[in-house]
Amino acid sequence: MTQTEAEILMYATTWCPDCARSKRLLDKHNVKYTWINIEEVPEAADTVRHLNNGMQVVPTIVLPGGRVLAEPSDKELSAALGLS
What are the DSSP calls for 32-52, one per residue? Predict the structure, then answer.
């Protein structure tokens, strides 16, 4: 999966409450992102483990520029996106 310069990637699962919370925050602020279900895309699960030192942590959010947030709080995600 390639990432364009301004694209946010959210690696997640449908059953994860933290994923749903981060999704709600992004949707509330009309932030464009690509949702990638790691249970449906096996190589995405590999990417998540690579980004998180072998751990399969969701949500894993990759921001433009390559910054990675793993299980961010709403406050952390808002600050990273300048939404505060």
Answer: --EEEETTT-HHHHHHHHHHT
